[in-house]
Design a protein that fits this description.
The protein has 306 residues and is of the alpha/beta class. The chain folds into two domains: 4-223 and 298-305, Spore Coat Polysaccharide Biosynthesis Protein SpsA, Chain A (Alpha-Beta Complex), CATH 3.90.550.10; 226-295. It has helices at 18-29, 49-59, 75-85, 102-113, 131-148, 163-171, 179-185, 209-223, 226-254, 262-295, and strands at residues 4-11, 35-42, 64-69, 90-93, 118-123, 155-162, 190-195, 302-305. The structure holds uridine-5'-diphosphate and magnesium ion (MG). The site of uridine-5'-diphosphate has 16 residues, from strand 1 and helix 3. Residues 95, 97, 99, 200, 205 line the site of magnesium ion.
Length: 306
C-alpha cells in the first residue's frame, strides 16, 4: 500500500505564497510514488491568505486541506492544529514561504522509508541576519540546548514526523509548548538532514525584535526552571556578602567605631532591593505560566475547515 505524506504549512499573511507553495510542491510530488496532502493552517491572516487557500482547494480538492483560525494564535498553535488535522502516515512541517526547500522533503521521505521516525531539518547556515540577532539567537539556543540536552543551535521547525510521534505530540497536555524542542525531546529513531535556508519568496518575515524576545522567554520558561535556580543562587551570593559585612560590622561595634558605614547601608539596601524585585519577577512569571496552564484554554480556535 502506498503511504500518505501530509505536509503542514502554517500561514500568516502569506497571500503571495499559497499558490506558489501548492504549485512547487505539486510539481515535486506528482511523479513520486507516495500520496500526499497539503494542510494549510491560516493563522488569522489579515490579508487574502484564506481566499487563496479556498482557491487552491477548489482547484485541487483531492490534495489540499484548509484550516482557518478565528484569530492569530501564533505559529506554534498553527503547527499543532496541522498535526491534529493531518491524516498522513508521516507528517512534514514546513514554512509556506518556501524558505524550506521542497527537495529536502523528498530526502526526508527517503530517510523515513529507511525506518527513521523523526527527521530533523538542520540549517547549514543561518542565512542573512544582523550581529545582534545572531548573538541573541545563539544565547537562546545555548540555554534551550542545556535544558533539553540536545544541541539545538541550528534547529528549525522543518521536520518529518512518523504517525507514532505525531500521536504522542498531540496527546501532550501542555498549552505552552515549543514544537522545535518538544519533537526532539520525545526521542525515537532520529536523523538530521542539512538544508540551506532559501530566500523568502514573497511578503516579509513576521518576526519583530519584540516578538522574538517574547518567543525566547516563553520557550525558555516552558522548557526549563533554570531561572528559578538563578534566584536561589543569587540568594546564596547575597548571603555570602551578608556574612562578610556582618563580621565587619560586629568588629567595628566592639572596637567602638559603629557610627560610620552609612554608604554601605545605602548600597546594601539598593542591591538587596533589586535582587528581591528581580527574583519576585521571575517567580511571578512562572506563576503566570502555571495560571495559563491551569485555565486549560484551547491552544487555538478553528472557525472553518475545508
Ligand atoms: N507564521 C504563522 N503564524 C505567525 C507567524 C508566522 O503561522 O504568527 C508562519 C508564516 O506564515 C511562515 C512561518 O510561520 O509560514 C515562518 O514565519 P516567517 O517566515 O515569518 O519566519 P522566518 O522564516 O523569518 O523565521
Ligand atoms: Mg520564513
Amino acid at each position: 500500500m502506498e503511504s500518505l505524506i501530509s505536509v503542514v504549512l502554517p500561514a500568516y499573511n502569506e497571500e503571495g505564497n499559497i499558490a506558489l507553495a501548492v504549485n512547487t510542491l505539486t510539481e515535486k510530488f506528482r511523479t513520486e510514488s507516495f500520496h500526499y496532502e497539503l494542510v494549510f493552517v491560516n493563522d488569522g491572516s489579515k490579508d487574502k491568505t484564506w481566499l487563496e487557500i479556498e482557491k487552491a482547494k477548489s482547484m485541487d480538492p483531492e490534495h489540499v486541506k484548509g484550516i482557518c483560525f478565528s484569530r492569530n494564535f501564533g505559529k506554534e498553535a498553527a503547527v499543532f492544529a496541522g498535526l491534529n488535522y493531518a491524516a498522513g502516515d508521516a507528517v512534514v512541517i514546513m514554512d509556506c514561504d518556501m524558505q524550506h526547500p521542497p527537495k529536502t522533503v523528498l530526502k526526508m521521505y527517503e530517510l523515513w522509508k529507511q525506518g527513521y521516525e523523526v527527521v530533523e531539518g538542520v540549517k547549514l547556515s543561518r542565512g542573512k541576519e544582523s550581529a545582534i540577532h545572531g548573538f541573541a539567537a545563539k544565547t537562546f539556543y545555548r540555554i534551550i540546548s542545556k535544558a533539553t540536552g540536545i544541541d539545538m543551535a541550528n534547529a528549525s521547525d522543518f521536520k518529518l514526523l512518523d504517525r507514532k510521534v505525531v500521536d504522542i505530540l498531540r496527546q501532550m497536555p501542555e498549552r505552552n509548548s515549543f514544537f522545535r524542542a518538544l519533537s526532539s525531546w520525545v526521542g525515537f529513531r532520529t536523523v538530521q538532514v542539512g538544508f540551506e535556508v532559501q530566500e523568502r519568496q514573497s511578503g516579509k518575515s513576521k518576526w519583530s525584535t519584540r516578538s522574538l524576545i517574547k518567543y525566547a522567554i516563553t520557550n525558555i520558561t516552558s522548557f526549563t526552571s533554570l531561572p528559578l535556580q538563578l534566584v536561589t543562587m543569587s540568594g546564596f551570593f547575597v548571603l555570602l556578602f551578608a556574612i562578610i559585612l556582618g563580621i565587619q560590622t560586629l568588629v567595628r561595634y566592639f572596637s567602638g567605631h559603629a557610627v560610620e558605614g552609612f554608604t554601605t547601608v545605602i548600597l546594601l539596601l539598593l542591591f538587596i532591593g533589586s535582587v528581591i524585585m528581580i527574583s519576585l519577577g521571575i517567580i511571578g512569571y512562572y506563576i503566570a505560566k502555571i495560571y495559563d496552564e491551569v485555565k486549560k484554554r484551547p491552544k487555538y480556535i478553528v472557525s472553518e475547515v475545508i
